[in-house]
Amino acid sequence: MDLLYFAVGLVLGLYVLIWSADKFVDGSSAAATRLGMSKLLVGMIIVGFGTSAPEMLVSALASLNGNAGIAIGNAYGSNIANIALILGITVLIRPIGIERNVMVRETPILLAVTLLSYYLIWDGTVSRLDAVLLLALFFCIVTLTVRASLREEQRRKPSPELEHNMPKQDEPEPMPMKKALFWLIAGLALLIASSRLLVWSAVGIANYIGISDIIIGLTIVAVGTSLPELASAIAATRKNEHSLVIGNIIGSNFFNALAVVGLAGVISPLPVEQGVLVRDMPVNILLTLFLFVFGMRVGRQTEGIISRFEGGIMVIIYGLYTAQLISIVMGKPLFSFLV
């Protein structure tokens, strides 16, 4: 009977996840249109930060309970999954177009933030001073990004006289603001809830079959905690809302590296394991550098494409990283220098 419950939960969770991702993206896109905000900004602030809310809760509770490894690993592990798994799979499904200003402005800042995070934890701890610095930097970046995006949207907007003389295009009217906000909030809540249901069901089935807890944690749970970002990214890609996809990835990584680690470090100073310094953060930096390099290639154009080949590279890196984690647990690491 337990197996039946888990199977029903798995199917129900997957259905609600896909349905709520569609509603969440629709609400986000309509809210951006109604507010006159760029979809990149909505992707970074609302979609990116909203889908990272579970990571913040997990890391804050882990810090309160003295589980520093969970708090740190949750944040940086999510950043690795965001680029390598989520963006990689999304691009494999359909190559996505990205605007030049996104890649020549946001990705260098993300790379700088990732390198700064590595510098701060190099001494083996996230002190309260480090945490306060991360939080202050987070609020500065958000403020500057919002202001820059609003100024850019204002420049793009035609003057009232020009707009009046422009031919009317047969574009569908966006949904009313109240409805857009409802589906934005309700869609996000259902995304998080359905992802938790999926993880619970998958872990239950795996335990029933006899798979060990540590393998479950490194595979099913690790992927499951990234399902809100993955579902919203795929839904946005299907609707050609490419700015929401990139904004989701960049916003989530900003949020995890600065706000999640910062909040956990303010609650309690966090000791950093050696494996984070020699394995997890270098992989995080490598992936962010790849995103930066891809962006610089695209940045030479007005708009460019992240190709399936590049998406495949990211997914392969994630597969090797996960295989390394599992091999360490099994006592036979694939790469002895990344232990």
- What is the string of helix and strand elements? HHHHEHEHHHHHHEHEH
What Rg, in angstroms, do the CA atoms define?
A: 20 Å
Residues in helix, %: over 70%
User: How many strands, what sense, and barrel or not for the largest sheet?
Assistant: 2 strands, antiparallel
Shape: globular
Mean pLDDT: 78
Beta-strand share of residues: under 5%
- Residue ranges: pLDDT <50 for 5 or more in a row? 166-171
CATH superfamily of one domain: NCX, central ion-binding region
CATH topology-level fold name of one domain: A middle domain of Talin 1
Strand order of the largest sheet: 1-4
Number of helices: 13
Summarize the helices and strands and which ones pair or pack.
Elements: H1 2-35, H2 39-51, H3 53-64, H4 68-93, E1 96-99, H5 100-121, E2 125-126, H6 128-156, H7 160-165, H8 177-209, H9 213-224, H10 227-238, H11 242-267, E3 270-271, H12 274-298, E4 303-306, H13 308-329
